[in-house]
Structure formats: C-alpha cells, structure tokens
C-alpha cells in the first residue's frame, strides 16, 4: 500500500468514526485499442471534474485499467464520499448478443454495480450513491439484488445499506429497477426461509401482508382444506395428506385494468413448502434445499406483488397450491390412484413427482376464470437441470405468441428462458398406463423427465395460450450470476414481471 493510499484509508476510518459513512460507486469503460485515454461514464466524468481530475489521476497511477466486473477502491477523494469504488463496465458499445440471448450492456451494469455496492457494504458503509451508468433500471437492479443476503436467523448481520442514484438519472427507470429487484428479493427470502418458518399458512400470510398496501386493487383468498375438498382437488389433497401442516390454496386477484371485465392473465406456482419426497424418500444429502420447492409459488406471487407496486394496467390472478410432501401413515403410496379436479385418474408411481399433482388441480381451476393466458412456474424436475443447468429456465408451451414474448422479456432481464419440446412422443409415455388415465412418471423414467412432466401438465390444459416454466435448474445460485450471492435465486421473477409489462397493452389483452 502506497503512503498516499495508506493516508487516505486512515482518513476514511476517521470519517467513519465520526459518522460520515457514505460511499459512491462509479463506472469506467474498458479501454479501446484506438483510444488510449480513460473513458468514464457521464456521472463519473462529472465527479472527476468536481475534484480537478484526481479520479483519472488515481486510476492512471494505480495500474492497468479495470476489466469488466472488477473494482478498485479509493479513499479521501471527496469530502462527501470518504470511499469511492470504481467498477469496470466492459466495452461501452455492446448491446443485445444473439448468441447469449441477453443484453450484454445491461448485464455488465448489474454485475458491476453489485460488486461496488458489496465492496462498500463490507466496509460497513451504510449509504451508497450509485452511478446509473447510462441505464438507471439496470443499475438499481444490480444494487438491490447484489446487496441482498438472507441473515434473518444470524446474530451478526451485515450492515443494511440504502442506495440512491448519483447525478442525473431517469428517476422512473431507477424506481422501476428497485421494484424489480425487491420483487426478486421477496422470492429469494421466501425460498431461503426454513420450512418450519415458511409453512403453507405462513407463506400465504406473508404474501397477504406484502399486498396489503394495494388492498384497493388486490383481493387475497386463503382457501382452507374444506374448500379444497369442495373443489374436488383430489390430486392436491393426496399430496397434502401426508403432512401435519394443513394445505392452503392461495388465490390472488389483482385488478389493474380499467376494464374490470378484461380476461386475466393467470399465474400458477407450485407451492411445496418442503419436499421430503414422501414415501419415495429423497436422499438426506441436500434435502434441506427442498425448503425452496415452493419456488414456483414464490416467483409468481412475487411477480404479482411487483405488478401491483408498478400499477400495471392488466388483470392478473395468482394461484398457489401450498402444502408439504411428507412421509406418514396417511401419505400417498407408490401405486395409489387418485382423481384430479377434471375427473382424470392418476396412478402415483413415484410420490416424489408430487409437484405435477398439485399443479394439475390448480391448472384445472385456472380455466374457471376464462383466462387469456396461463403461465405456471415450478421447480418441477431435476431433469431440466441436467438439460440446461442454471443458464435458463425451460419453457414448454402450446403458444408461439407466449414463447416469443417470454423470450423477449428474458433478453431484457438477462434471466433467460429456453424453449423445450411438447411432442406427443412424451404424452404417450404418461397416458399408456394399466391402472389409470395417467401415470405421474413416464414409462422410461430417466429419459426426458422434464418433457414427460410437461406432457403430464398439458393433460389438464385446454387454454390456447399456456406455458409451463420448469425452474428447478435456476432455483439456486452458486457463482453463475455475479450479481446474486450464493443461495436461492428467486429466478425468474423479473422475467415474469417484464413479460407482464411487455404484454399489458398487447392485442391479446386489449380486446
């Protein structure tokens, strides 16, 4: 550490001790071959000018210019900001990449801002101003998503950081980014919470509380077991009966459109708040992660909360069948036959393929609202993780219209989707069955497991526009997404919100 840097750091510590705990995150672009100078963002250039070029000087003498996603911290450059973190944004000319199916610029901003904010959080800086880096929404998303860490049951917690944009910014874009990030963080919080704290009842209560500020636009119905029985949801009930926790069918109505008669978009989420596998018991290693098997319910409910916060002019209904899948004397046994809401019988050969059972009844019920489109999300199969890993959620759909718009939304958010097949080849594997109309696993259980699961769900869909998102592969984050810490990811909440934002005035929903 140079003498100048050492003295600056000492000054930073003195300022912090006196309560001046404020930091700044600024962006710098990667050096181009035809340009030897340092290229700062608009906000960073204005800051540099205000301190007579000291930032450029320090960047020059501190070594090679920052590469994308890297950071450098300076102390004592400005009296209002004891610590300044400069982050690398990569090349300034990048945009949508056809090969990667995302916007490189937006992803770079999210990643860079998250790095800078975390750096300051580690220094226990409580208030951070953030360079919008030319895209206020992406910068806000990077800040909000990057700072999130689930530590509710830890005695020692990270410092809570508040963020705001630095310099001129489109305030609406920034606020939109904050709401997008908050929405995904809500899903992450639900998915991370221990299963003894997020039971079906607790999940429903949490979502009701989050929607309370929008009570004039949202109706929340927490349907009890007696209602589920009256709706003849035999497949859902067969899964829930193995647990001491009572099931809840959560039903949310968001009336965002001025036309109250507008047919809704229905979002359906798998809500297994803990999945032991039932009698087909899972291995104990890694079973704790099955507290997040309600990731589908978490993402669709969080998307609806975000849509309400954004006041999007569209009618949305959210449905989440919530229960535990546990082994007991009352639990489903391999070979049992149950009857779904639409009358179809199902042979349950694997009690660990329970998500499709609860979704079957929820999808049947979704049709009672005469929806324009139905999208369901579920951490449904390990097979989709084998196929796609954490790069994208698998989408199975009968609608090119839905697919095109989901894909466009995912390019904007960087939280990608990838289309998977719905061939009759897979349908035959779950319909050719000895004891019942359907089997809950394919004849060749290890082959095309994500595809046979989707084929099973399609047996409960008559809507022209339906999409099933298998999100098991994107449930967690190790180090794949740089602006998310390790843990439950909350994906693809932002893609669902962006899709809703994208279609709110489309031909399908405007007439």
UniProtKB/TrEMBL annotation:
Q: Where is it mostly found?
A: cytoplasm
Look up the record and name the cofactor or cofactors this protein needs. Mn(2+); Zn(2+)
According to its UniProt record, this protein's enzyme class is: hydrolase
Pfam families named among the record's database cross-references: Peptidase_M17 (PF00883), Peptidase_M17_N (PF02789)
The entry lists its GO molecular-function terms as: manganese ion binding; metalloaminopeptidase activity
The source's superkingdom equals: Eukaryota
Q: Which UniProt keywords apply?
A: Aminopeptidase, Cytoplasm, Hydrolase, Magnesium, Manganese, Metal-binding, Protease, Signal, Zinc
Transmembrane segment boundaries: none
Q: Which GO terms describe its cellular component?
A: cytoplasm
Which Gene Ontology BP annotations are present?
Answer: proteolysis
Q: What is its EC number?
A: 3.4.11.1, 3.4.11.5, 3.4.13.23
Give the reaction(s) catalysed: Release of N-terminal proline from a peptide; an S-substituted L-cysteinylglycine + H2O = an S-substituted L-cysteine + glycine; S-benzyl-L-cysteinylglycine + H2O = S-benzyl-L-cysteine + glycine; L-cysteinylglycine + H2O = L-cysteine + glycine
Q: Which residues form the signal peptide?
A: 1-23
Cell location: Cytoplasm
User: Which stretches make up the Cytosol aminopeptidase domain?
Assistant: 350-357
Q: Which PANTHER family match?
A: CYTOSOL AMINOPEPTIDASE, LEUCINE AMINOPEPTIDASE-RELATED
Entry's HAMAP family?
A: Cytosol_peptidase_M17
Question: What does the record give as the function of this protein?
Answer: Cytosolic metallopeptidase that catalyzes the removal of unsubstituted N-terminal hydrophobic amino acids from various peptides. The presence of Zn(2+) ions is essential for the peptidase activity, and the association with other cofactors can modulate the substrate spectificity of the enzyme. For instance, in the presence of Mn(2+), it displays a specific Cys-Gly hydrolyzing activity of Cys-Gly-S-conjugates. Involved in the metabolism of glutathione and in the degradation of glutathione S-conjugates, which may play a role in the control of the cell redox status.
- Family classification: Belongs to the peptidase M17 family.
Oligomeric state and partners?
Answer: Homohexamer.
* Full protein name: Cytosol aminopeptidase
Originating organism: Sinocyclocheilus anshuiensis
